[in-house]
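Worked problem 6 (solution included).
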Amino acid sequence: MPSRLLRGQLAADASQISSDADSVYVMFDSGAVLRVDKTSGAANVLAAQCEGGNVVGDDVHAYLIDVAARRVVRAEKTGAGGVVVVASKLELSGVGLIDETHVYVTTTDGVWRLAKRGAQPERIHALDEVELLGLDGDNVYVTAGSFFAPRTRAFVLPMSGGAARPVAIGPAVPGAVRFVDASFCALRESGALEAIDPMTGAQRRVRQLEVQGRPFLKMNSTHVYQGDIRRIDLRTGYVETTEVDECIHDTVDESGIYWLERTGDSVTLMGWS
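Solution. The predicted structure is:
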């Protein structure tokens, strides 16, 4: 069994997770947010009330995207000092991303950039149905379009604002476009995983994947993760699997995959690096 237990005996209403370099954040239906250290499994409460969105973090702070309260708040990862409001009165619609100086969020009217230290929020682009995929210092990489649309379109959005430069990726499985290693990676309906250069549109095939029953793509620079839970090495194609009783929610970052697992009445946080 390649997976390992990070935290056991979580409350039964644990429903969603996100992660960064050193932490996994567990969100509960009650609104509570728990930070779990990836190495030690030690945990502390970050907030008593946060609904929707996700949590993104840097070395010191975590930023909680609270969709229900229409705000983004900052908390020390240790849980000390309470929370500080970074931005409020935003019609937040999805998860966020973070870099050294800003937090990026989506709202019902576009993509917004929030300074970590209290400057006025700035809308940098107006797009509908946006999913944030990645950052590179100069651009924000997103997809836009309804989840049920037959095509998903990827966009490069300059952080300075202005006109977006669309990158057409052609037919892809809805929800199965990611930004990894400076490329859009799109899972075609045929099962072909292709990398598309966001500047030139040049395409290359990365790997042929099984699509039926496993349509949603999660990946980092070394592996693709599908189903509950199947890991494919991008370099060699080697496939590994681990048994999961019931996966409530999962997240992938560069260190691996993490998930909430329900076994009977018990909920645990698991990891596979």
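Discussion: Residues 15-126 form a domain with the Lipocalin fold (CATH 2.40.128.630).
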